[in-house]
């Protein structure tokens, strides 16, 4: 998911209804953007550091659309963001944690699938394909933590993609220990120039997201080894 719009005006809703009723065809490709942009350089996260763990929910039926939308369980970010994530992961090790990635770069077509499968009443929770998602730019990542001592994914104040206030990074209910882990993750990510979404503790945008274009390259077209591990 990744977007919760606020203040959608009645005028916009009415206009959208009119255009739908008038039979304007659905958008068939990514939005055309003027740029200029940096050249995309998507890097496979586990190629930089194989101790980053993956739990790619969108490659399984265990996600909010209850069907796999990725054919491969892989995760990518643009190189500067990927390297920043590795630094955050290594800093977290000093506190006994490692990073688990739920999602990174997301092809635009998948954002379109999410939009099309989401009922009108819930569309505030998904990115509009007209503008795309920062995941489409390879500069947003959904993450949680695992405990280095036990190898287990930690409990956080909410589960991934939970559309409730428990997902807000400012939520102050639930267990104190879970909130503290959430805050440890946030601080480590912010130190590396990622910014948390105000309603999803797991979603972080990299500072340079606007410098990269929306992409629609399928995972299968991205080479398996595009980077050697970053030395410790
Ligand atoms: Zn996200």
List the topology elements.
Layout: H1 10-21, E1 42-44, H2 45-48, E2 53-54, E3 76-78, H3 79-93, E4 97-103, H4 108-117, E5 140-147, H5 176-191, E6 194-197, E7 200-206
Parallel strand pairs: 2-4
Antiparallel strand pairs: 1-3, 4-5, 5-7, 6-7
Helix pairs in contact: 3-5
The structure holds zinc ion.
Zinc ion (ZN) is lined by residues 2, 103, 135, 140, 142, 203.
Structure overview:
The radius of gyration is 18 Å and the shape is globular. The chain is of the alpha+beta class and 232 residues long. Helix content is 25%, strand content 15%. Residues 5-24 have low confidence and may be disordered. A hairpin with a 2-residue loop joins strand 6 (194-197) and strand 7 (200-206). The protein has five helices and seven strands. The longest helix is centred in the C-terminal third of the chain and has 16 residues, at 176-191. Helix 3 crosses helix 5. The chain has helices spanning 10-21, 45-48, 79-93, 108-117, 176-191, and strands at 42-44, 53-54, 76-78, 97-103, 140-147, 194-197, 200-206. It has a single domain (41-221), classed as Muramoyl-pentapeptide Carboxypeptidase, domain 2. The protein binds zinc ion (ZN). Zinc ion (ZN) binds at residues 2, 103, 135, 140, 142, 203. Zinc ion binds at residues 2, 103, 135, 140, 142, 203.
Summarize the structure.
With 232 residues, this protein is α+β, with helices and mostly antiparallel strands.
């Amino acid at each position: 998911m990744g977007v919760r719009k606020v203040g959608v005006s009645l005028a916009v809703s009415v206009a959208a209804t009119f255009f739908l009723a008038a039979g304007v065809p659905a958008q068939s490709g990514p939005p055309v953007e003027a740029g200029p942009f940096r050249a995309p350089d998507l890097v496979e996260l586990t190629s930089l550091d194989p101790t980053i763990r993956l739990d790619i929910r969108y490659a399984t039926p265990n996600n909010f659309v209850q069907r796999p939308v990725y054919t491969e369980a892989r995760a990518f970010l643009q190189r500067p963001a990927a390297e920043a994530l590795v630094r955050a992961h290594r800093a977290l090790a000093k506190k006994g944690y490692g990073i688990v990635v739920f999602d990174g770069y997301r092809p635009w077509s998948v954002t379109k699938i999410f939009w099309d499968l989401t009922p009108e009443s819930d569309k505030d929770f998904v990115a509009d394909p007209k503008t795309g998602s920062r995941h489409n730019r390879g500069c947003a990542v959904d993450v949680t933590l695992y405990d280095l001592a036990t190898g287990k994914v930690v409990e956080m104040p909410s589960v991934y993609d939970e559309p409730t206030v428990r997902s807000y990074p400012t939520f102050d209910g639930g267990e104190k220990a879970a909130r503290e882990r959430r805050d440890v993750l946030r601080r480590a990510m912010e130190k590396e120039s990622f910014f948390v979404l105000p309603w999803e503790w797991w979603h972080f945008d990299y500072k340079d997201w606007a410098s990269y274009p929306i992409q629609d390259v399928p995972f299968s077209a991205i080479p398996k080894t595009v980077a050697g591990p970053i030395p410790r």
